[in-house]
Amino acid sequence: MEKCAGKSVFGGIAIGRILLFKKQEQQVRRQKVDNPELEEKRFEDARQEAMRQLGKLHEKALVNVGESGAEIFEVHQMMLEDDDYIDSVMNIISSQQMNAEYAVAVTSDNFAKMFESMDDDYMRGRAADVRDISNRVINILLGINQEEEDSDEPRIIVADDLAPSETVQFDKSKLLAFVTVHGSTNSHTAILARTMGIPALIGTPLALQDSLNGKLAVVDGDEGVFYIDPDEETLMKMQKKEEATKENQELLLQLKNQKTVTKDGREIMSYANIGNLKDLPLVLQNGGEGIGLFRSEFLYIGKDTFPGEQEQFEVYRTVAENMAGKEVVIRTLDIGADKKADYFELGAEENPAMGMRAIRICLTRPEIFKTQLRAIYRASAFGHISIMYPMITSLEEVAKAKQISSEVRKELTSLGVPIGKVKEGIMIETPAAVMISDLLAKEVDFFSIGTNDLTQYSLAIDRQNQNLDDFYNSHHTAVLRMIYKTVVNAHRAGIWCGICGELGADRSLTELFMAMGVDELSVSPGSILPVRKAICETDLSDPAYRKKILSDWNLEELC
Ligand code: PEP
Ligand code: MG
After folding, report:
1. Could you tell me the pLDDT band of residue 161, with boundaries at 50, 70 and 90?
2. Whether the CB of 429 sits within 6 Å of ligand 1
C-alpha cells in the first residue's frame, strides 16, 4: 500500500480504480528512424489493436445504447481500413524515414484538414473522426492504455493538473474523485469537484507513472489522504467511513423540502452554483431553491468556436424549465484568466487575471455579448431568469452593459419575440465595486459577492498559485469588512445581496453572514443542505448577541 497526503478541496470517501489523465499535446515526437520496416510493422500492429478495441466498444455500445449509438464505432473501423489513410502513413514512414507516431499524426492532420474544407456537412463532421481514430492508434503506439479511458466503470482521475477546458470534457457519471499533483484550492477544478460533490485532493506528491492506471485506490477527502493499493484493513475502515458519510447525507436529505429560515424567522434564499446542464439534477436532488450563479462561460470553453445563439438558448431554456419558476441567475460569460477558449484570440497576457476578461470582453466585442443576451432573453419566456454581469469595477461599465442589454430587449420585442421579466444584477468581486457599492446599488436589482476573486484582488494573491494557498486567507478582516459593507449598501438601496463565491459554503461563517444580513447563499449543490442546516440552527433574536458576533470579527465599526 502507498499512502500520500494531499490538500482536500472536498470531503467524502471514494473507492475505485485509477484513471491516469495525460495531456494530449505532450505525446508525439518527430524522430528519424534507421529501420522504416520496423516502424511499418509497429503501425500495422497498432492499427490491428485499434480495430480490436473498436470492435469491443461496438459490442458494448450495442448493449448500452443500441444500434444507432453503436454505429460510430463501425464507421471508425472502416476509416482505419481505408487504403488512402494506410498508404499515407506507410509513405511518410518509408519515404521520409520517420517514426510511426509522427506519420500517423501528420496523416491525421492532413486528412482532417481535407474533410474540414469540404462543403458537405456530413463530410466536415468526419474531421473529428479521423482525429479520434488516429489518437487511438497513437496512444497504442505510445503504450497508453486507452481501454482504461473507454471503461464504463467510474474512476478516480489522477492528473498533474487540470485546466477547466479539460475538466469539461469528462463524462461526469464516470468520475469518483479527483487527485492532482498541482492546482490550487481556489481553482476551477476544485470548484468543479465541489459542484459535483465528489472528494478531491490537490497538491498530492505523486509520480505519475503509467503503472498507476487501473490500480485500486481510496481518496479520503476528509483527512486529505490518498491510498494506492490499500491493504485489507484500510479498505474495510474506508468502506465503513463511506457508509457513515452516506447515512449522514440521508439525514441531511430530510431538509431537502424545508424552507431555509433562521430560528429568529429570517428567510434566506438557498441557491446553487452550476457550470452546465449536467449539474442541474444535483441542484434538484439537494433541494436548491434557485440558481444563484450559472457560470455560462462553461458553454464556451472546451470548444473550437463560439456557441451559437440557438445552442445557448436551448441550454438556458432547459435550465429555466427544469427550475420550474425558481430564479435562475445567469452570469454572462466570464472568459479570461484561467478560463480560456483559444478562438477568443485574447493573445498572451502578462497578468491574465487582471487582463481582458469577463465584462471587458463583452463591452469591447458587443457582437459576442449580444448573441448571449439574445439567447438569455429568449429563454426568459420559459421561466424566471435574471442576468448578472461579472468583474464590474465602475458605474460606466454597468451603464454600458445595461444599454446593450436594453437594445437587445427592444430588438427582440420589435420582432414579436416573447420575453419574461428579467432582473439585472452584478457581481461584487473587485475592491473597486465594494468601495462604490452605494452608487452601484442604485443602478441594479441585486448584488452577488464573488468572494473568490474579491479575496484574490483584495489580498493581491493569485488564486491559481498553489504556493500561495496559505496566504489566501478568506477570513481576512479586510474581506469580511468588504462583504459587510456591500450588504449594508445593498440594503440601504433596497436590493438584495448574496454570496456566490466559495466562502458562502464556509459554515464557520454562516452565523456571521446572518448577522451581517446576507440575503442569499449560492453554493455548490453538495453544500446546499449542510449550509441550510447551519442557517436553520442560527438564532439572532437577541440584538446584543448579533452585535457581539460582528464585534468578535472586528466589524463593529460598521455596525
Ligand atoms: C468568484 O469570484 O467568487 C466567483 C463566484 O466567480 P468565479 O469563481 O467563477 O470567478
Ligand atoms: Mg469571479
Report:
1. confident
2. yes
